[in-house]
Amino acid sequence: MTGLFAIVLVAAPTLAVLAMLVAPRREFAEIVNLLASIVSFAASIALALTAPPHGVTFLSHYVIVDPLGAWIILCAAIVYLLASIYALGYMRTLDEDERLPRFYQLFATFALTIFIAPLMNNPGVYWIAIEMTTVVSTFLVAFEQAPEAIEAGWKYIIVVSAGITLALLGTVLFYWNGTFVLGPTYDMTWAILRHAAPRMNHPLLLLSFLLVLVGYGTKVGLAPMHTWLPDAHSEGPTPVSAMLSGALLNTAMVGIVRYLAVLHGAAMVALPGQILVAFGVVSLVVAALFIVRQRGVKRLMAYSSVEHMGIVALGFGFGGPLGVAGAMYHMLNHSLNKSLMFFGAGNAMRSYGAKAMARITSFARHFPVSGALWLAGAVAITGAPPFGLFASELTILRAGFAGIGLWAAIVMAVLLIVIFIGFLNHFRLMYHDGAEPDSAPAPVSRWCVAPMWLALVPLLIFGLWWPSGFWRDFQTVAHDIAGVPAVAARQQAQTTSPVVPRRPA
Amino acid sequence: MTAFHASPVVASIFSLIAIASLLLAFVMLGSRWMRHYLMAFAAQSWLIAILSASVGYIDRYPELYVIAILTALFRGLLLPYLLLRIVRRMNVEREIVPVLQPSSSLVIGAISVVFALAVAEHIGTSLDLSSKVVILALTVMLSMKLIGYLMLAARHEAVSQVLGLLVLENGIFLGTQILVPGMPMLLELVILFDLLIVVVCFGVLVRYLMGQVGSTSTLHLRRLVG
Question: What is its main location (chain A) (predicted)?
C-alpha cells in the first residue's frame, strides 16, 4: 500500500505537468494544478499514516518511505495545497495572463522535486534531487522578470549551487570513508552508511559531516549561509515564497538529519549536535537583528524563516526524544504559519502596491477579515500561545534545558523575546490608523483569504491539542536517529505522554 | 582501491594529471580574458577525461570509459561551446573591473593550496595512508574547491561566476576518479547530466540579466540589501 501511495504522490504533479504541456491554457492549468495538489495532499496523509517505523525501500533500495521522509512530505503537500489555492487569486493580479500556464507548469514541477527529495535513499541521488529543486525554483523566483526578481534569481542559483557543491564533496568523502569498510564498490544508502559508520575513520567522518552541513545548510537557510534567502523569498511571486519557505527548507533539512543519524551510528553524538546548535544560535541572532530593522514586508517574513529554521536546527541539535519531537512539530507548524504570513504579506503588497511596510497603514480598517487572520498569524509566528509554534518552541526549549544545550536554550529564549517585540512592532505600525494611502487599497480576492483560514484553524488546533499519533511518529524518528531499535521506541512511545501544556500558560 | 598501492609509473601518471589540472586552475585564476578561461576549463575537462580512462584501464572499471567519453564531450566540448556562445552574444571579452588583481589572486590561490595540503596530510595521517597519490588527489580536490570559491568571489562577470562553479565541480570530479573509482556509475552520469541542465539555466538567466538589468556584471546587482 505504501508504495502505491508514493506512486500517487509523485504521479499527480507529473501528470499535471504533462497535461499542462499538452494544453497550455490558463483556466485549465489552474484547475489541473489545484487537482494535483489535492491528490498529492491526500496521498501524503496516507503515506504518513502507513509509513512503517523502520522505513521500506523500493526500486532496488533507491526509494525509501520512512516516518521522517513522510512527515516532511506531509508538510510540503500542505503548503503546496494552500499555495495552489492562493495562486488562483494572486497570480491573476500580476497581469501576466499569457505566461500563467508556464508558471503552473514550473510550480507543479517544483512541488514534484520537493516530494522526490525526501524519498531518496541514496545520498548521491538525494543531492541531485536537491539540486533539481534549485534549478526549477530559480525560474519561479525570477518569474516576474523585474530587475529585482532577476537579481534574486541569480543570487539564489549562484549561492545555493556553490554551497551545495560542498555537500557533494561531503557525500564523496562519506562514500570514500565507506570503501575502507565495504570495499571499493557498494550501493550507498543511508542505512548502509550508518551500519558501516562505527568502523569508518572518525575524523574524516566529522569533516564530511561538516561539509554536508554547510552545503545543505545553505539550502536550509542557516546563517551565515542564508544570504540568498531574503532575496529569493521576497522577490518571487507569493505562492512561490510560501513553497520556498514552508516546503523547500524542510526538504533540505532532511539530508542534515539523516547524516546526523549516520554520525550517531558511529557514537559521535555530542560534537555534531553542538555544531548544529551553534548554527541554530547564529541563525537566530542574525534573524533577530534583521527583523528588528526590517523595512520590506516580505523580507520580514523571509528573515522569520531564517529564525525558524534556526529553531529547527536547535531542536535536532539538542536531540533526544524532546528535541526531535519539538523540531518535527515545529516544521509542521512553521509550514502552516509561514504560508499564512506570506499570504497576508502578498495581499497587503498587491492591494497597497508597495513592498515597504511604511506604505501599508490602517490595514485592519481596510481588510477586517484578512487583517484579523494575518494579525493572528503574526502573534502565532512569534511563538505566542495558544498556537502550534508555542507548543513546539517550548518543547525544544525543554530539550535544551534538559540536555547539553543550557546556554543555547537561554540565548534562544532571549532572542525569541527580542523577535516577538520586533516583529509585532512592525505589525503595530501597519495596523495603526495613520495617514491614508494616496489611493484606496485594491480589494483582495476570496481565493486569497480562504487559504489563510485553512492555515490558521489547524494551527490553533495544534496549539491546544498535540495529537498522540504525531507523538508516536516523532518518537520513532527520534529513536531511529539515536539508534535504538524501533520496537523499543514503540513501547516507549506508549508509556510516554505528550509533555506540552494543554491550555495556554 | 588499487590507487592505494599503484605501481610507480601509474602513480606518476595520476600525479602528473592532477598537478596539470591544478596548474590550469591557476591559469584561470591569473587571466582575465574570457577566452583563455574557457580554453583552460576545456583543457582541464579533457585531462579529467584522460584520468577517468586511465583509471578505468588500470583498475579495470570498464564503465569509467563511458564516463571518460561523456566527460570529454560534455565538459570538454559542449559546456565550453555553450559558454563561448554566451560570451560572443554578450560581447564580454574580459573582466572590466576585477576586485582582485590577477597577481594577488594568484598569491591567495597559492596560500589555499598550502592550506589544502595541510588538511590532506592530516587526513592521510589519520587514515594511515602510505600512498602519496591519494594525498595529492585530496590536495588538488580541496585546493580546486578553494580556488573555485576565490573565482566566484573575485569575479563579477556572470560567465566567470558560472566558470567558477564549474571549477568547483571539476575539482570534485577529479578527486572522485582517484579516491573512489568504484562509485556507482549511475551517480556520475546523473551528475554530468545535472551539470548540463544547470549551465543551460545559467544561459537563460544571463539572457534575462542582459535584457532586464542591461549588463552581465554582477556589480550592477545591488538593489536587494538588508
Answer: membrane
